[in-house]
Amino acid sequence: MGNDDLTGFFEKFLKKDTLFLDKKVLQSAYIPNEIKHRDIQINQVAHILAPALRGDKPSNLFIYGKTGTGKTLSIKHVSEKLLKVAKEKGTPLKIFYLNCKLKKIADTEYRLIAQLARLFGKAIPVTGLPTDEVYSTFFKVLDSEEQTVILVLDEIDQLIKKAGDEAIYNLTRINSELKQSQISIIGISNDLTFANNIDPRVKSSLSEEELVFPPYNALQIQDILKNRAETAFKKDVIEEGVLAKCAAYAAREHGDARRALELLRVSGEIAERTDKTKISIENIDEAEDKIERDRILEVVETQPKQFQATLYAILLADTSAKRTKGQSLIFTGEVYELYKTVCDKTNLRPLTQRRVSDILAEQDMLGIINAKVISKGRFGRTREMSLAVPQSLKPKIRKILEETLDLAIN
DNA sequence: CGAGATTCATGTGAAGTATACCTTTAGGCTTAA
DNA sequence: AAGCCTAAAGGTATACTTCACATGAATCTCGTA
Length: 410
Hints:
Layout lengths: L2 H13 L23 H11 L11 E5 L5 H19 L3 E7 L9 H11 L11 H13 L4 E7 L1 H8 L2 H8 L8 E8 L10 H7 L2 E5 L4 H15 L9 H11 L4 H17 L7 H22 L2 H16 L9 E2 H15 L6 H13 L3 E7 L5 E7 L6 H11 L6
Parallel strand pairs: 1-4, 1-5, 2-3, 3-4
Antiparallel strand pairs: 6-8, 7-8
Helix pairs in contact: 2-3, 4-5, 7-8, 9-10, 9-11, 10-11, 11-12, 13-14, 13-16
This protein binds a DNA duplex (33 and 33 nucleotides) through helix 15, strand 7 and strand 8.
């Protein structure tokens, strides 16, 4: 493309009017003024947290609910209002929000506490410090002034699954030591069954109050969509039935409103890019496809080298496996053999099978493969897995991996 | 023929190791009085 | 003498390895009908 073409393209791009009025309304970080269909929950949260305004310690709260049921949104909404009132009254109240799922941020006890201390403006190194030391630093800042602190730990189930419940237990007990300040914990979990496998002591101290966020039904999602679409899009750019279909898609997946909004936003982007003046129903299908692709590619690209090598081995196994019933089933041993040859080609130091086994388990968690442990009777026991990736995406993944792993393409 | 025993390939837990990084400390050098 | 810098010492978290044991159904074994 010549330079003139490019200039032309940019000019045209600027002239072309967009379908969006305010795209950020559809992004997941956006907090609308009015949250629909969550009045009851928001009220309950408000009631539970209100004592903070009088300088009392609010009860610890545990919130359950599937993804996209408005948990985070509701909490953030209440927090905002609460902080505003507290500020007017001059009550020393702080609310911190921390997502435990983020790798390398809060997925171990050390990292969680370190991150908390950082929120209070303390610099904590990534490693090297005793965990106790970090605790006491955190403790000191916390107690350095009279204040009430509310700590929101999102996706706390992930943390406990990876790092155990020690950290949470310590956090809940820290109150008895605090002289000036007090801390309440709000735990948010997507996994409704996860309470069963944590220490009962932790559970009881964490869930002084419990709240369940039920999924939205299709009508509610549609209502939410309509509401947001009004401010997000220009008038009349949405074709009849589009919102309904978005809602239906999302409701199919346990009423995930976040997904519905994302679908709508991406549909809009697609329509815009293809120079349409309206968002049509077909765009939704394309959007769903694109979202899934982007998610997978994102995961593939950002994984550590060893994970990528493992994934590449799976990919190789997948293409060579005899294709029975459409789904090719792959076993650990097979993957590990291929993995070793991959390492050989890429000058990567091969990890042990023990470690690879863990890596496979993590890939399963990431949803990039489907795996389950089965016993093949006389023929041992293994993890039976298959790539959870659309066929059309495999070549692309392969290419990405070959590039990042610097594999000689044969 | 069927109940147990056996077997295989790998899952999985625990403990140990390597690496990268942190703080503290002691020595050496510089500086200012 | 005091202050400052540097390098070594001592300590930690994390990712990974090593070791050892656990799993669980297909297959085998062998007593019994």
